[in-house]
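My convention is simple: the sequence line spells out the residues, with the fold written below as integer tokens. I include a record here:
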Amino acid sequence: MALLATDRAEMSARSQAKDASDYVLDEQVGHLLRRAHQRHAAIFLEMIDDAQLTPLQFGAIMKLADVGQTSQNQLGRLTAMDAATMQGVIKRLIARGLVVRGPDPDDRRRLLLTLSANGVALAGQVVQRGLEISAKTLEPLSASERETFLKLLARLSD
């Protein structure tokens, strides 16, 4: 028996509705990662010693403290920030006197970033807080779960 167009449409709608009901948002990786990130960001804002310091600025400062002088482009790659985001982060850090931008002696087209004396001091002040923030974020996990979780996140980040 041939199905009428309205019958086919109704069956298709029921099929799609069943498919949608099979999708449980609370079990989806993107949703869970976003919620974990929100939790971490709240912990960061609660615990960091510098109320003006954002997580992205913290990452840029700590990476500069780690690698030393580097280009803005390279710092963006090392911190996984796109060019526009990195530009805003560096602009604010320069305005606060935490980062200095100067010419590259080997390539006049490129500018190099360095932590200022205040930036070095701030990095030294907040490094312990950063470790405490990470520990508090991972607090619900056992030591072996933390190790496994961080390894898995690193694999997902490649």
Q: What stands out?
A: Residues 138 and 146 are 6 Å apart (CA to CA).
